[in-house]
Design brief:
Radius of gyration: 14 Å
CATH topology: 60s Ribosomal Protein L30, Chain: A
Number of helices: 2
Shape: globular
Number of strands: 8
Strand content: 25-35%
CATH class: Alpha Beta
Strand order of the largest sheet: 1-2-3-8-6-7
Distance between the termini: 15 Å
Oligomer: single chain
Number of domains: 1
Length: 125
């Protein structure tokens, strides 16, 4: 049975989607951009600051669903510019110091609200 998860500690969806959906012990976390959930606004700053905010949002969603970063099996990182890849990786490595999930990273033309990064996440129990 499909279960929907939502928390006020992560930004509300800015479209017709759920923050996360769980099915068969797998949690699918929608792409998170660096929105501060308290203000509803994109955090100002470089790729490092924005990536940290994205991970705060992912952590809040994982937590409300009873998961953690150790349960993450796949991430997809969307970057507005591949020049930000190295700095994004440095932040990413803090959250996955060992047994890293599978991952894809792409440069895209544009992200919602002018964000520099968006990350979607899949976790399993």
């Amino acid at each position: 049975m499909k279960k929907i998860f939502s928390t006020s500690k992560a930004p509300a969806a800015i479209g017709p989607y759920s923050q996360a959906v769980e099915m068969s012990n797998t949690l699918y976390v929608s792409g998170q951009i660096p929105i501060n959930p308290e203000t509803g606004k994109l955090v100002e700053g470089d790729i490092t600051i924005q990536t940290v905010q994205v991970f705060k949002n992912i952590a809040a969603i994982l937590n409300v669903a009873g998961y953690s970063f150790t349960d993450v099996v796949k991430s997809t990182c969307l970057l507005s510019d591949m020049a930000n890849f190295k700095a994004m990786n440095e932040v990413y490595a803090r959250y996955y110091p060992e047994k890293q999930p599978a991952r894809a990273a792409f440069a895209v033309k544009e992200l919602p609200m002018g964000a520099l990064i968006e990350i979607e996440t899949i976790a399993m129990k």
